[in-house]
Amino acid sequence: xxxxxxxxxxxxxxxxxxxxxxxxxDEFVAHINSKKPxxxxxRNFDINTPMSFLRSLTGTVRSNLTRVLMKKLxxxxxxxxxxxxxxxxxxxxxxxxxxxxxxxxxxxxxxLGAVEAMTDRICISSxxxxxxxxxxxxxxxxCTYCGKGCDGGDPAMxxxxxxxxxxxxGGDYNxxxxxxxxxxxxxxxxxxxDRPSCTGIDTxxxxxxxxxxxxxxxxxxxxxxxxxxxxxxxxxxKQIQEGNFNEWARVYQHVSGDLAGGHAVxxxxxxxxxxxxxxxxxNSWNSDWGDEGYFKILRGEDHMGIxxxxxxxxxxxx
Length: 318
What we know:
Order of helices and strands: EHHHEEHHHHHEHEEEEE
Shape: globular
Number of helices: 9
Strand content: 15-25%
Oligomer: single chain
Radius of gyration: 19 Å
Helix content: 10-25%
């Protein structure tokens, strides 16, 4: 039986400690590890990193109204769900599935996560014949009803925008294989890296320019592609898996700390580690972060809201 996949944007919460214990301090790390969670805490950001910067990376805004406007995916085919699944292995002819992006110093996770999933869906639906990358720059800068650009947006609205207005092609910073590349330079998210450190929290949203980059030979109007359907999925583990047939080396569970905001990511698989079920997730903080850009988070308990705000869609193929 052929398995199908839908890639989703998932809003997850970032945990920060109360003012009594600095969230990047050795004491806070020790406090978490004393709880003996299913992962080992460590410091992935310099201790002097401003909390305002960390919050700026959580650029997802939830809108219940948006989800009302979307079709609800249900009554899915009764398939045998495997114990583990990795979309990179299921569709090796679609390298975009394993590509890690970098939102840089911009709260654009909602846009990056959306176009990554759209790109994957185009490749999968075309059986690898179409390898078009959807432009995050076009979505980030031109979708005025998605939110506030680098100050956050709604992943569900991003999918609706794709079906209504369409999006052109485009890749990472300084790439020329599409219409509009990402204009914000990659940076190190306070981890050891050859990239310059991410700085500031006031990165302006790029202006909406409906024309291709000067280095591109493409025409903006003729390059636009559209989504066909967009949908939401019940916050049920099996529903997500059926629709998806879409530290590190440890499974994250929240232990201590307060809510910092919502973050959009892409689920590419699942599995079990040391008897703990997890979702395999691609982040947008480049490959220097986490497990080469990926992390695992507890599956099946709507942990940190990972299963309660899932949206996906399918492309229109010419």
